[in-house]
Design goal:
The chain folds into 2 domains: 2-181 and 232-261, Rossmann fold, CATH 3.40.50.720; 199-229 and 264-304 and 319-336, UDP-galactose 4-epimerase, domain 1 (Alpha-Beta Complex). A 7-stranded parallel β-sheet has the order 3-2-1-4-5-6-11, with helices on both faces. The protein has helices at 11-22, 39-48, 62-71, 86-91, 93-113, 147-165, 199-207, 235-248, 268-279, 303-309, 317-330; strands at residues 2-6, 26-31, 53-56, 76-79, 118-124, 170-176, 178-180, 214-217, 229-230, 232-234, 254-260, 266-267, 285-288. Helix 1 (11-22) runs parallel beside helix 2, helix 1 packs across helix 8 and helix 7 crosses helix 11 (317-330). Helix content is 40%, strand content 17%. The radius of gyration is 19 Å and the shape is globular. The protein is of the alpha/beta class and 337 residues long. The longest helix has 21 residues, at 93-113. Helix 2 (39-48) links the parallel strand 2 and strand 3 (53-56). The structure holds nicotinamide-adenine-dinucleotide (NAD) and UDP-4-deoxy-4-formamido-beta-L-arabinopyranose.
């Protein structure tokens, strides 16, 4: 298939481009580079020995998206092109709602015009809100408490409504848990701008000496050791899940919803200790107050994806820690050589 990967230069997108190319698909990327660099795509090309067609384009811009569809024979779309910082979304709600919702609408509009009807969407476990654990696809969604999460709920609804009236459409809503790690080569990985919000990039920057110590946000949660518990998934497992999903859309119509997680919860301190063990390093940390908006514990019921997609996360926490550090070590300034 020839896949348009919107946001393909980013963290999850670049790994997915790599796996798509390795599986024999053709890749067209549209990215406005607001949170990435084309260097990631150059490295994917070097790793795979294959070419990517790249458009520097904002996918909220209908004219720009129309140009891509009129120049390329697209069979399906994977939409990663979102803004993703939860705290920033509270500060800048208009920017977040515009970018994340209008991008989905624009892609749908142009796809409909060109008879393209396979859509894979980057959703998030955040849509479950503070539900019972494990999170199951059949659960009613609860409020997410921030504009970022609401943009994911809205995009899911839009895609469901579009598929409901267009029986030829097939949509996969992929709810990711916490992606970490990097391609095992250490050539592509997560390249956060400024101070990382997320746990793993912060840990790797402490390991490299760029930050003094990790701030652990709370150790008084009702969890195994009092720190927050999440379902960390290796970004390469996640990327492989996308390829299975887009291939599934060739066989089935309608809306398919899948959790992409491992099904196992890991606490902040468990992750820190796994990182120390996997890499033979010490990560200094201090415990602080809970971070506003955090949930104590969540992880996936990952059985539906296994049953229907034949996909299961295979890589361990040790693999995630080793690969995250391998990337950071080789690229202390990210993609800026
Ligand atoms: P990322 O920021 O590395 O990648 C997003 C890419 O989209 C970037 O290359 C950015 O430049 C591009 N982009 C953003 N808005 C665009 C627009 N309007 N037009 C064109 N390009 C645009 O983020 P990521 O971690 O790879 O996340 C990818 C997707 O997965 C996002 O939608 C995110 O919300 C979702 N998601 C991420 C996580 C996570 O923890 N990383 C978890 C759940 C869901
Ligand atoms: C994990 C755990 C923190 C940083 C966020 C978004 C979510 C999704 C993934 C997109 C928590 C603790 C963290 C630090 C810490 N993104 N922590 N010190 O919050 O589960 O999810 O990213 O969809 O929507 O909300 O991930 O990596 O920020 O935090 O102690 O410096 O690590 O409190 O328990 P989170 P995270």
């Amino acid at each position: 298939m020839r896949i348009l990967v919107a946001g393909g230069a980013g963290y999850i997108g670049s790994h997915t481009c790599l796996v798509l190319l390795e599986a024999g698909h053709d890749v067209v990327v549209a990215d406005n580079l607001c949170n990435s660099k084309t260097e990631s795509l150059r490295r994917v090309e070097a790793l795979t020995g294959k070419q990517i067609v790249f458009y520097e384009a904002d996918v909220t811009d209908e004219t720009a998206v129309e140009k891509i569809f009129s120049e390329q024979e697209i069979d399906g779309v994977i939409h990663f092109a979102g803004l993703k910082a939860v705290g920033e979304s509270v500060e800048q709600p208009i920017r977040y709602y515009h970018n994340n919702v209008v991008s989905t609408l624009t892609l749908c509009k142009v796809m409909q015009r060109h008879g393209v009807n396979k859509f894979v969407f980057s959703s998030s476990a955040t849509v479950y809100g503070e539900n019972e654990i494990p999170f199951v696809e059949t659960m009613s969604l609860l409020p997410t408490t921030n504009p970022y999460g609401e943009t994911k709920v809205m995009s899911e609804r839009i895609l469901q409504d579009v598929a409901n009236v267009n029986p030829d459409w097939s949509v996969a809503l992929l709810r990711y848990f916490n992606p970490i790690g990097a391609h095992e080569s250490g050539r592509i990985g997560e390249d956060p701008q400024g101070i990382p919000n997320n746990l793993m990039p912060y840990v790797t920057q402490v390991a490299s000496g760029k930050r003094e110590y990790l701030r652990v946000w709370g150790d008084d949660y009702p969890t195994v050791d009092g720190t927050g518990v999440r379902d960390y998934i290796h970004v390469m497992d996640l990327a492989e899940g996308h390829v299975r999903a887009i291939e599934k859309l060739n066989e089935e119509k309608g809306v398919l919803i899948y959790n992409l997680g491992t099904g196992h919860g890991v606490s902040v301190l468990e992750l820190v200790h796994a990182f120390e063990k996997a890499n033979g390093l010490t990560i200094p940390y201090q415990v602080f107050e809970r971070r506003a908006g955090d949930i104590a514990e969540f992880y996936a019921d990952a059985s539906k994806a296994e049953k229907e997609l034949g996909w299961k996360a295979e890589r361990t926490i040790e693999d995630m820690c080793r690969d995250a550090w391998n990337w950071q070590k080789q690229n202390p300034q990210g993609y800026e050589e």
